[in-house]
Amino acid sequence: MRIQNVSVVVVSAVCLLATGCSDGVSGKDDGAKPKPTHSVLPQRLDKPAPMPEGELQPSPAADAAFSENLAYELRRKTQSMAGATGKITAECPKDLGSKSGTTATCTTTFEGVKVEWNVSIGGKSSFSNNLVEFTATPRQGILTRDGVARLLYGNYRDSIDYALCNDIPKAVIAPLGVQSKYRCEVVFKGKKPSGFSQPVRATDSGPRYY
Asked: Mind listing the pLDDT tens digit for each residue in 169-183?
């Protein structure tokens, strides 16, 4: 599948084939001083395995309907939001067409956690009449334990020994773009936990820590 990605904050716009389909993250520091938790957080996160390379499987057949191709793209977006591997399913209205101006609600599920998406179908892409533009905006975010670990070890690389958090589940719904109830502290090599932690946030492109 040939895809053109354009991302703006929470709304993502891409192009996808009207029919047919073939077959990490950064943090932000706004300068705010972390708040002390006054106790050592109970959950230890060790360095996770790298995300697997290659296309998400299974992918739609070459003659798949537009709704199946759209569902596949939403599965990809859901994995990006989770920052982790897991069972991902997606469902869009089966009669959903590629006519410009069409709107629909689709649902993706990551390890049993459901996210609803507001989908709007745009016009034909300027690159090809066989590509259709659409925007998909998640109504909720997802946080995952592995996604947060991957973020922290990706940001701090070899400078940290481990990370401590307050019991982040394998996958859980979280508000988008604002601090969640989950917090973490990175413990640098040769140091002990300080009791200072920062909130974790869900975004449509993966967890953030600030």
From this structure: 999 999 999 999 999
The pair phi, psi for residue 86, each rounded to 5°, is 170, 180
Q: How far is Cα 63 from Cα 65, in angstroms, rounded to an integer?
A: 7
Pick from 141, 28, 140, 150: which is nearest to 85 by CA? 150
pTM: 0.79
Concatenated DSSP letters of 113-135: EEEEEEEEEEEE-SS-TTEEEEE
Residues 24-61 have pLDDT tens digits of: 344 444 555 555 556 889 999 999 898 988 889 989 99
Contact assessment for residue 104 and residue 119, using Cβ atoms and an 8 Å cutoff: yes
DSSP classification of residue 202: E
CA-to-CA separations, 13 to 45, 73, 135, 183, in angstroms, rounded: 33, 11, 4, 31
Task: Supply 82's token pair.
Answer: 């989770």
Instruction: Measure the N-to-C terminal CA separation of the chain; round to a whole number of Å.
Output: 35
| Identity of the amino acid at 92 | C
With H, G, I as helix, E, B as strand and everything else as coil, classify residue 168. Answer: coil
